[in-house]
Amino acid sequence: DIQMTQSPSTLSASVGDRVTITCRASQRISSWLAWHQQKPGKAPKLLIHKASSLKSGVPSRFSGSGSGTEFTLTISSLQPDDFATYYCQQYDTYPWTFGQGTKVEIK
Amino acid sequence: QVQMVQSGTEVKEPGASVKVSCKASGYIFTGYYMHWVRQAPGQGLEWMGWVNPNSGDTNYAQKFQGRVTLTRDTSISTAYMELSRLRSDDSAFYYCARDRITYTSSTFDYWGQGTLVTVSS
Fold first, then answer.
1. Is residue B101 within 8 angstroms of chain A, CB to CB?
2. Nearest 5°: phi and psi at B90?
3. What is the overall mean pLDDT for chain A?
4. Which of A5, A10, A96 would you mutate first to test chain B, the one with the most B CBs within 10 A?
């Protein structure tokens, strides 16, 4: 199975900060990577697919980049609604696998 | 609007089976694969497999092969996940999640609200 490793596991930041989360795949996955956001007690929501394509309706402060094995999710200016856990997910090779998650906390 | 509504909380004894339903609305049910993902409380996400509602074809993660069965009833736009021989470490939230693209498998763009399954004697 392809291992997805996110860093950091926890991130403390303030409203207005620029935030970057990294996701590394254990083998090349081209651009078949998605980012999902999950808030406590809620189902995840898709933010980005194919590494850098923003889902319709997702704020433009979210962006994704990378290909191959290294990917990043960037929030350009953190908003109160963005405090959540973020998961990367590869869909290049079965079984689809997720990173362990990055929790973005209020500083 | 696209929506998936799942069945309610289940409590099962070890060794039993559970069947969770996922009723879809707001789109053509047979046009999009339905995935199932689980999450143990406080833990990460784990993909279990998908069902093609159009054909009934399935693809399961090897970890769950032989224990999970994904089915669908197109007449009521509902997908089902049945997990057998339950163990305590199967206690988790189980989510259905619609594929983003028609007639193929990719990532998921809409998720159900989740169903808590607790396995306890």
1. no
2. -85, -5
3. 97
4. A96
